[in-house]
Amino acid sequence: MVLIVDYRDGKGEMLLAGDGPARRFGSSGRRDGFVALGMVLAEVGDSVLDGVAAVLPTTERQQEAGMTWSSVRGAVALANALAFAHGVPAVRIDSADDDDVLAESADAAVVSAVPQATVRADYDGQPNITRPKDRGVSVERH
C-alpha cells in the first residue's frame, strides 16, 4: 500500500493506492490537508505501508500545476516525515490527471526505491513572499 501526497492546485489531498482502485481523501485547501491526512491514516490503521509518494511535477511544470514554493516544500516535508515514521521510502512521482495512473507510478517508484529514500524540494520559481508586489500606489517625487 502506498500513500500519495498531492498538493497540486491549492489543495491538500491524499491518495491511498493498494488493492483495488486508488482512493482519494480530499480537503478544501492546503490548510485542511491535515484533515485529509487524518482520514487516510484512520483508513490505513495498522496496515503496512510500502512507501509514501509526493506528486511533484517537473520544476518547469510546477507553476502550471498550481504548486507554489510553499506547497512543494509542504508536500516534500509531509512525504518525508510520513515515510520516516513508517520506516518506508519516500519517492517523487510526476503529476497525472488519473488517480490510477498516479497509483501505478507510485507503486513502480516505491518498488525501485532504496529503503531510506527521501524526496528533495526542487522549485524553479521565486518564493511569493520575496516577489516584488504591485500595490497600485505610485509615489511622485518633486
TrEMBL record:
<feature type="compositionally biased region" description="Basic and acidic residues">
    <location>
        <begin position="131"/>
        <end position="142"/>
    </location>
</feature>
<protein>
    <submittedName>
        <fullName>Uncharacterized protein</fullName>
    </submittedName>
</protein>
<feature type="region of interest" description="Disordered">
    <location>
        <begin position="122"/>
        <end position="142"/>
    </location>
</feature>
